[in-house]
Write a structure and sequence with these properties.
Blueprint: E1 2-5, H1 11-23, E2 27-32, E3 37-42, H2 49-53, E4 58-62, E5 82-84, E6 87-89, E7 93-99, H3 106-119, E8 123-125, H4 143-156, E9 160-163, H5 170-174, E10 179-182, H6 190-197, E11 203-206, H7 213-225, E12 231-235, H8 253-260, E13 265-267, H9 269-273, H10 276-288, E14 293-297, H11 315-328, E15 335-336, H12 345-353, E16 363-367, H13 373-381, E17 388-392, H14 395-403, E18 409-416, E19 420-421, H15 423-431, E20 436-444, E21 448-451, E22 462-465, H16 467-472, H17 474-478, E23 484-487, H18 491-501, E24 506-510, H19 512-517, E25 521-525, E26 534-541, E27 553-559, H20 566-576, E28 581-588, E29 596-603, H21 610-621, E30 623-631, E31 633-634
Parallel strand pairs: 7-8, 7-14, 7-15, 8-9, 9-10, 10-11, 11-12, 12-13, 16-17, 16-18, 20-31, 22-23, 22-24
Antiparallel strand pairs: 1-3, 1-4, 2-3, 5-6, 18-19, 18-26, 20-26, 21-24, 21-25, 27-29, 27-30, 28-29
Helix pairs in contact: 3-4, 3-11, 6-7, 10-11, 20-21
Length: about 625
Amino acid sequence: MVVILERNIRDDDKSRVRTYLEGKGLKVREIVGVEETIFGAVGHVALDIREVQILPGVEKVIPITKPYKLASRELQKADTIVSVGPVKIGGHRITMIAGPCSVESREQMFETADCVCRSGAVILRGGAFKPRTSPYSFQGLGEEGLKYLKEAGERTGMPVTSEVVSPTHVELMRDYVDMYQIGARNMQNFELLKAVGAQGMPVLLKRGIAATIEEWLMAAEYLMAHGTDQIVLCERGIRTFETATRFTLDVSAIPVVRKLSHLPIIVDPSHAVGFRDKVSPVALGSVAAGADGLIVEVHPQPEKALSDGPQALYPDQFERLMRDIQALSPVVEREVTRLPELRTARTSLADVLREPDADASREVAFQGERGAYSEQAVKRYFQSEDAVPRAKQSFRDVFDAVLDGSAAYGVVPLENSLAGSIHENYDLFLQYPDIHIVGEIQIRIMHSLIGIPGATMEQIKRVFSHPQGLAQCAKFLDAHSSWQRMSFYDTAGSVAHIARENDSSNAAIASSEAAGVYGMQVLREGIETNPQNYTRFAVLSRENGSSEREPDKASIVFSTPDTPGALYDCLKILSDRKLNMKKLESRPIHGKPWQYMFYVDVEIPREQGVFSAAMDELSQKSDDLRVLGTYRAMT
């Protein structure tokens, strides 16, 4: 059952409720949410829920109807985020796990780890104990293989996962892996599930080759009932009559599981199809279907692999797959997870968040109301759940919050693919010379028609939104010509407005996430005229971003002398240095009529010193050169 506690429940009342439930033989799990705190109570106990309902401090009791209790979304509405070392799986992330089917040698693991890490994988996989259909097949290197796997992971900074096949191996593997893997053949090995669950560590649970979704979630329930709530579900294909592929990948399981359970779900396309030429298209299809990540087999020489060589990708194939996923991720409103040492602002934020009393350092300022697209950008860039988005009234307020230290970072939009540049923010960079760009994130703008709960489209008379929101949904609104279009200062703010008015004839255009924030109802999704609608956001900090890896993009601003060819001379420096220009924007200089500043975004090449040399030369040809920031651009 789900026991919803009163918001202002006293500590002694909460303790008495827990004691009462545990005294009845129930296992109690406390879940603290943004709006409410609940107790999840599970166990084979016949109990009249009215006995719990009357306890002091209890607001409501809801029975859980699913046979899997702890894994059910009835118990926990919010998605579980699983932490595997520094890597997080779930939420708005696409997490890539890669490596060979089997650990074959130290050299093989080092070579594989280097190539998959370089391409973008963040967790290293490799089998040390291999359950094989034939007793004559390679069974793995055992503990020696675990040592090679761990060493390769430490060398690249990646946490590691490996399959555990016997309860007797659980304690041994604990010292080597960051996440246990339960293979398809052992999904219903209940003694193994009990032993692994008792470790309290992250677990990757693969679906059995003939298991229903309910049986799969019941296996997760075994793990949770015995001690761990850090579980990642893995769809890897089921056995059907089809023989064209090794197994049949049940893509539909992804949205089904996401509705039934709060646990993240990833996909293993390698085992599903069994042939490397089919792995990438199936992997991309899985991401499009909503998978939280992929686990892919990669081998430096698949033709010489001791197990599953035909389904292992070559390193260059994996690199291409990663590029394709990077291109796809904004469309599905996800971000590809990266190792902390590859980040700029996020690495710094994680360090700051470890300071227990540094409240301001947890805040990330954005302009708008809760549920705004800028808040989405905050959440997708800063993957740490300790980051606190803080709404500000204006863009200037965001800059001020970063400058005075009341926020560690700020996020502001720079450019929309349809509406163009947000000039106000470009101008603010000139007024705040101590503010730097330390990151960039792009998100897709998807508009929804939102009404109050129970309202219908037939009742609508007025639609509120920011003028750009109204303009970007013109085709949809033209089909409802009787509706009055009401300009509002903010898309999310328009949802807050109709929530306050509580009038079924009012509607708003904003993100579906804004509807959830204010308890409103989504009447129609995807109403924008042009689906190619993206906004590019800059991450701001008082400190220049720094990273162990070189940044790949820079933003600069400069003015030019009032002489013929001055701008050409400046841009020629970038061309001569092979710095690929991504954007050129001119803005008038306030107080200097007919004089302009030029904003330029360039890609930074891998060669050390090229960008610095170009800036030194550019400073001689231009006036007032300033580097706004060097950073890694995230899509």
